[in-house]
Automatic annotation (TrEMBL):
<feature type="transmembrane region" description="Helical">
    <location>
        <begin position="177"/>
        <end position="196"/>
    </location>
</feature>
<keyword id="KW-0472">Membrane</keyword>
<keyword id="KW-1133">Transmembrane helix</keyword>
<dbReference type="InterPro" id="IPR035906">
    <property type="entry name" value="MetI-like_sf"/>
</dbReference>
<feature type="transmembrane region" description="Helical">
    <location>
        <begin position="277"/>
        <end position="303"/>
    </location>
</feature>
<dbReference type="GO" id="GO:0005886">
    <property type="term" value="C:plasma membrane"/>
</dbReference>
<comment type="similarity">
    <text>Belongs to the binding-protein-dependent transport system permease family.</text>
</comment>
<keyword id="KW-1003">Cell membrane</keyword>
<feature type="transmembrane region" description="Helical">
    <location>
        <begin position="136"/>
        <end position="157"/>
    </location>
</feature>
<feature type="domain" description="ABC transmembrane type-1">
    <location>
        <begin position="89"/>
        <end position="296"/>
    </location>
</feature>
<feature type="transmembrane region" description="Helical">
    <location>
        <begin position="222"/>
        <end position="240"/>
    </location>
</feature>
<keyword id="KW-0813">Transport</keyword>
<dbReference type="Pfam" id="PF00528">
    <property type="entry name" value="BPD_transp_1"/>
</dbReference>
<dbReference type="InterPro" id="IPR000515">
    <property type="entry name" value="MetI-like"/>
</dbReference>
<feature type="transmembrane region" description="Helical">
    <location>
        <begin position="93"/>
        <end position="115"/>
    </location>
</feature>
<keyword id="KW-0812">Transmembrane</keyword>
<dbReference type="GO" id="GO:0055085">
    <property type="term" value="P:transmembrane transport"/>
</dbReference>
Amino acid sequence: MFVPVIALVSAATFWLASRSPFDPLAAYLGDRFERTSVEQRASLAEQLGINDAWYAVWWRWVGDVVVRGDLGQSRSLARPVADVLAQRLPWTLLLGGAGLTIAVVASLVLGVLAARRPGSLLDRFAGGLAYVLQGVPPFVVALVGIAVLSLGLGWLPVAGVATGGADPTWGSIARHLVLPACVLGLSLMPWLLLNVRTSMVAALREDHVQAARARGLPERIVVWRHALPAALLPFVTVVGARLPEVVTGALLVETVFSWPGLAAATVDAATSMDFPLLAAVTVLTCAAVLLGSLLADALYLLLDPRVDHA
């Protein structure tokens, strides 16, 4: 199903882009548009294939990708699409990976602690935090973080990956990554936190956990070695189902923090009907989500003790 889904998504991307109200030629020429004659515009549109039917453009793109491995030329950035992805994709992966790691670790720790004492102050705090974050868009969390931690307290930088136009270093990248990664992690936390808490409450009541308690094992051993593995099974499934939110959330956070990832390139591609770049970003995102879901299913099978791996 992987190849048909990718083909369908890429075709839908070309069709939707062809329905865009933006003028791709005006976006391509920029300030030169008004100084260009009608004949020159028509000639350029013919060269770029702007007037071709969307399915003809899509079919040419598929042929170039399959036969030559060529993702095409970005009209909006005037660069090969492969170069754009090579430059920007690592930044998006860094932000998305850091945000997902923060969300997973924080959800596991807070969810386990809350499940140990249902109805306690910590349990009510965890539930309230999850419901609040669930209803707040990521860009609102980002603006609050900037107002408090950057502009108010001055602890963290506001945007970019370096200060004052300097070349980025590992230290500056790490410092600039903290706030956007935390914002992305908070936006991903609600469902993960609630799932861990619910699964742990159920796991702590299972017979093998009660038997471990009856043998006199320390509570931390009972919780982390006996109850948590059982709670991880549904948690892995939820993480896999939330992978699209990692992508969309990362793009929103990148926009707010001027992070040099795929967000700006995606906006430029959408507003200028840059078919090759828009298709490449969309297909790449779809492939990442499908592969992530496949990995989550594989981890579920490995973690489930009821599955015979012989």
